[in-house]
Automatic annotation (TrEMBL), chain B:
It comes from the Bacteria. Residues 1-298 form the FAD/NAD(P)-binding domain. This is NAD(P)/FAD-dependent oxidoreductase. InterPro entries: FAD-bd_OxRdtase, FAD/NAD-bd_sf, FAD/NAD-binding_dom. GO terms for molecular function: oxidoreductase activity. Pfam families: Pyr_redox_2. PANTHER family: NITRITE REDUCTASE [NAD(P)H], PYRIDINE NUCLEOTIDE-DISULFIDE OXIDOREDUCTASE DOMAIN-CONTAINING. SUPFAM superfamilies: FAD/NAD(P)-binding domain. Keywords: FAD, Flavoprotein. Its cofactor is FAD. Belongs to the FAD-dependent oxidoreductase family.
């Protein structure tokens, strides 16, 4: 006889197997980093360092490496860097600044010099690391349909499970994520074996070999896809969540990943049409502008679209739908937060103090982004590299390092298991700050409160990823109009008394609390 | 003036907050359950791991000092009304100018044999949840006695840990002393869907102990034995006023109060779960054991205490609850059967989890109230329609104005209208055409 208990038991077993498969695949994936042989041939050297001038300059220094077999990647990288730096040091010593080589060849050199297991088995490894691991993940998630066969909010044990309540595993996960971002941004030469796995795919989609950014884009889409399955199961009773999840997933895969790569393949200027300044902080950098306008009409149109998005798109769309149209329906950062980050949303800090920090920090970043961009454009148009005595290049570099890498990447995602899924969106994103100002002052969006039905239980505040103390408003019958609200709709979903509703209504009266005639 | 409030539940705290908003009086809140105000309604979520205790506190801990509301964790066991002095369990004396009694409830125990065994408990306080955590560690079967709102919450809690729940109710259907039959059956089916064993028309006779003074089974009035390692007693609550019995204060089930929440003693007031209206309104309970009413009472009382005599007026009745995964909202006086002069319209979705009931006067067709299961409804609209006795055909035609479900939710308006027109062809309703892409 098939009883509920039997099914429950079987499903739990499937979950465990799925988790084991996933962990095994992850283990394989990580161990790839440590294997492989490296041999730099003359041919590879020439193919990788395409600049004839650089070739000539570097050749003597690296000649001792040619055809030498390295079984350690670290030694290989150390030798190459030593050789490379020795050339540059010489120029620097002689103050020959124009000769210094700024291009970073380490990652491609390492990747091209790889020989052995990974290179020979990249297809099967791709299959194990990405396909099988995803199936493992799905095996872990899908049984929820049978373990909790009745749809509804199922948050059982979230605060009793280590991974979702800052336990040891959560901290390890966080360290893993942060390390990944450090390698990705600062030391991609160490993860070339991973990049190799997606080389074929990259050739197929974009027509060129994979860089660390292609790998990142691919992983991003994969993680979001698998974690979306979790969202679809969890919120199968809530159409708002289903539609919204589909939307972020679509924009990530189509707009952030496929279209830009396909454009490259077609030899057209490449662009993520939904990304926008100031989140896309390099949008006005000289190489981007030049890159676009050098491609003629289409390039100009793209430049225009990028400007149109934040000048016209933001105010108009926020007026009608609130900031959510971007933050929880379109944005890539938001997309990851709403899928991979969803299990961690309850970890955001709801204190008033956190809100104070949030306002200062996020608006400072916005100012920083504006100033940085203004400085960069000043240099672009005047050719003058100094603004008020400060080197604009260094402002731009600082922004890229502290905001682009540390804040958005390492902290933004790395801290999911510690501070919740929207650390970056809440404290750091300049675009969120801009959208938020619009939402606060000129929008039809609000979360309406259902009169007096609130029982102050706190589910809404606990599960608000932006750390908004939703209950503080709901229990007074006030509508929630906060610049930071990304309109994820989860507060409304988890409320056990049907108190909250996200709405776009007439602007008038949006701040008025609902009081019953007896209480006026 | 020094105002002392006994009880830091929603009644006491709401009173304190509104007194502070309106005045500079010294305020002291004495309570023995927790240092700070927390949401009793969220206790189940702590047990189920949805939240921690911290999350149930509606105000951060600094709030009280900032608003000059003094807090004291102590148990008051005697009051000298003549000398306006309180005595705490550790012999401290505290004097007051005005006293507010907001001591809440305690779970009912009806003198069942074995009701004090280990593993037998009610669910009311923070300590009860901690005890329940202990009592249910590693157990397999439980019995819940009493089918109200706390009973179903306890069933959900135990179910979340895969403990087999036997849920004893006296009535034929779950909560059918309050819910109309159709709704009660709908909830009952949902309870079964969650594999909770609802045992109807069954009462507890006795709780049986094992050799260590711990429960091992119960026996029903029909003589049936049900093995269990935990018994939840959820047969209602009653005012927590034992320490006030046999004093000059007039009490019955609760502390007797007027519509101003005044007791018979000067400068002494009572509200919330522990108060009993000496002259309750027709059809309204004398003791209101609800979160919302405690809040509204607190607001009214604060005005009276600050010199603006204010009648507590609850207005149009409303309430809400959640039965496992089905949300319930009710507006207006909706009892298990409509009043004599009322007709009742009922619609249920074929999935058996969504329904609407509207009661209205037979004579004019004026709306009296709604029950919603699995549909959220805007309180502003329901309140206004009932208050202004809107015609039922208008209400049914305009139901969509009140739907409060998340955007993109399926809207059953057309179905409801169709069903209404068939049941009541003397009151034709009309649903507006669906607009494309408008939500
Ligand atoms: C599990 C549960 C779920 C509920 N869910 C809902 C719901 O969904 N909707 C709803 O409307 N209502 C609900 N209720 C009812 C609601 O919580 C109560 O009506 C409300 O909390 C009563 O508030 P109160 O301030 O009157 O009393 P309480 O909250 O009980 O506060 C009284 C406080 O006074 C303290 N106290 C008592 N005597 C003394 C003394 N002598 N000295 C010092 N301190 C003392 C008590 O320890 C207690 O902390 C629920 C109740 C429970 C138990
Ligand atoms: S979840 Fe709903 S009932 Fe609970 S505090 Fe928030 S708005 Fe109020
Ligand atoms: S307030 Fe609600 S909708 Fe807004 S971000 Fe928080 S949980 Fe999401």
């Amino acid at each position: 006889m098939v009883t509920a208990k039997n099914i429950h038991h079987t499903m739990k077993t499937i979950q465990k197997i799925g988790l084991a498969i996933f962990i095994l695949c992850l283990g394989v994936f990580i161990s790839l980093l440590g294997i492989g042989h490296y041999q730099l041939s003359d041919k590879i050297f020439k193919e990788t360092i395409t600049d004839a001038n650089h070739q000539q300059l570097l050749k003597p220094a690296v000649s001792f490496m040619i055809d030498k077999d390295y079984d350690s990647k670290i030694a290989f990288i150390a030798d190459f860097k030593k050789a490379f730096n020795s050339v540059n040091d010489e120029f620097k010593k002689n103050q020959q600044w124009d000769k210094v080589i700024y291009a970073d060849y380490t990652q491609p050199i390492v990747k091209h010099s790889t020989i052995g297991f990974v290179k020979e088995n990249s297809l099967i490894l791709f299959f194990i690391c990405f396909v099988v691991s995803s199936l493992g993940g799905l095996m872990y998630m899908i049984p929820a349909l049978f373990i909790e066969p009745v749809a509804g909010i199922k948050h059982n044990d979230i605060f009793k499970t280590a991974i979702t309540s800052r336990g040891i595993i959560a901290i390890l996960f966080s360290i893993g994520l942060i390390s990944f971002y450090i390698f990705l941004y600062k030391a991609p030469e160490y993860i070339t074996n991973w990049i190799l796995l997606v080389d074929d795919l990259s050739f197929a989609i974009s027509g060129s070999e994979a860089s660390q950014w292609f790998l990142y884009g691919f992983l991003y889409c994969l993680v979001m896809t698998v974690m979306s399955a979790r969202m679809y199961i969890k919120y199968r009773h809530n159409n708002y969540q289903l539609v919204r999840t589909t939307s972020v997933l679509f924009f990530q895969i189509a707009f952030a990943f496929l279209i830009p790569n396909i454009l490259s393949k077609l030899n057209l200027p490449s662009m993520d049409f939904k990304n926008m300044w100031p989140l896309d902080y390099t949008f006005f950098f000289d190489y981007r502008i030049d890159g676009l306008i050098s491609k003629g009409l289409l390039g100009y149109w793209m430049l225009g679209w990028g400007i149109f998005l934040f000048v016209v798109g933001v105010p108009v769309m926020v007026y009608f739908f609130g900031k959510r149209w971007y933050c929880s329906w379109v944005c890539g950062c938001g997309g990851l937060a709403e899928t991979l980050g969803d299990p961690f949303r309850q970890l955001s800090d709801k204190s008033l103090k956190a809100w104070k920090y949030e306002r200062v920090i996020v608006h400072s970043v916005l100012v920083f982004a504006v100033v940085m961009t203004a400085a960069v454009l000043y240099t672009y148009f005047t050719g003058n590299s100094k603004l008020l005595g400060i080197d604009t290049g260094s402002i731009r570099e600082q922004y890229g390092f502290f905001i682009g890498f540390i804040f958005a990447g390492a902290i933004g995602t790395g801290f999911y298991p510690i501070m919740g899924s929207r650390v970056w969106c809440r404290f750091g994103c300049p675009l969120a700050a801009y959208l938020g100002i619009m939402q606060r002052f000129k929008s039809r969006f609000r979360i309406t409160t259902n009169g007096a039905q609130c029982i102050s239980c706190g589910n809404c505040s606990t599960y608000c990823e932006m750390g908004i103390d939703v209950r503080a408003y709901a229990q007074k019958g006030e509508n929630i109009i906060r610049s930071s609200c990304v309109g994820c709709g989860v507060c409304a979903a988890v409320c056990p008394r049907g108190v909250l509703k996200l709405e776009n209504l007439a602007e008038e009266g949006r701040f008025e609390a609902y009081l019953r005639p007896e209480e006026k | 003036m020094r105002i002392v409030i006994i009880g830091n539940g929603v009644a006491g705290i709401t009173t304190a907050r509104y007194i502070r908003k309106m005045s500079d009086h010294e305020i002291l809140v004495i309570s023995s359950e927790s240092d700070h105000f927390f949401s009793r309604t969220a206790l189940m979520y702590i047990y189920m791991g949805h939240m921690k205790y911290e999350h149930t506190k509606p105000y951060e801990d600094w709030f009280w000092a900032k608003n000059r509301i003094d807090l004291k964790n102590a148990f008051v066991d005697k009051i000298d009304f003549q000398n306006k002095t309180l005595f705490t369990a550790n012999q401290e004396q505290i004097s007051y100018d005005k006293l507010v009694i907001a001591t809440g409830s305690k779970p009912n125990k009806f003198g069942w044999p074995g009701q004090n065994l280990l593993g037998v408990q009610g669910l009311y306080s923070k300590q009860d949840v901690e005890l329940m955590e202990e009592n249910t560690k590693g157990i397999k079967e439980a019995v819940i006695v009493g089918g109200g709102l706390i009973g179903i919450e306890m069933a959900e809690m135990l179910n979340s840990r895969n403990i087999k729940v036997n849920f004893l109710i006296r009535e034929k259907e779950y909560w059918s002393n309050i819910l109309p039959k159709e709704e009660a059956i709908l909830v009952g089916k949902h309870i079964a869907e969650h594999h909770i064993n609802l045992i109807n028309e069954t009462e507890l006779q006795e709780i049986i102990s094992d050799d260590n003074g711990r429960v091992k089974s119960i026996i029903t009035k029909a003589g049936k034995e049900i093995p269990c390692q935990f018994v939840g007693l959820t047969a209602g609550v009653s005012p927590n006023i034992d320490f006030l019995k046999n004093t000059d204060l007039n009490t019955d089930k609760g502390v007797l109060v007027t519509e101003y929440l005044e007791t018979n003693m000067p400068d002494v007031y009572a509200l919330g779960d522990c108060a009993q209206f000496a002259n309750p309104k027709e059809n309204h309970p004398a003791v209101e054991q609800l979160w919302y009413t405690a809040k509204m009472q607190g607001k009214a009382l604060a005005q009276t205490i600050c010199g603006k005599q204010t009648i507590y007026n609850r207005g149009i009745w409303f309430n809400s609850a959640k039965f496992l995964d089905i949300e319930y909202q009710t507006y207006g006086m909706m009892l298990k059967s409509p009043f004599e002069d009322e007709d009742s319209f009922y619609w249920e979705h074929q999935n058996g989890k969504i329904c609407v009931r509207a009661n209205f006067s037979k004579a004019e067709g004026a709306l009296r109230g709604f029950n919603f299961f699995g549909i959220r409804f805007r309180q502003t609209i329901a309140d206004e329609w009932i208050r202004n006795q809107k015609p039922i055909s208008y209400c049914i035609s305009n139901l969509n104005k009140g739907f409060f479900d998340p955007e993109f939710s399926k809207n059953h308006h057309q179905d409801i209208v169709k069903s209404f027109n068939i049941q009541f062809n003397n009151h034709q309703a009309k649903a507006p055409k669906k607009k494309f892409l408008v939500w």
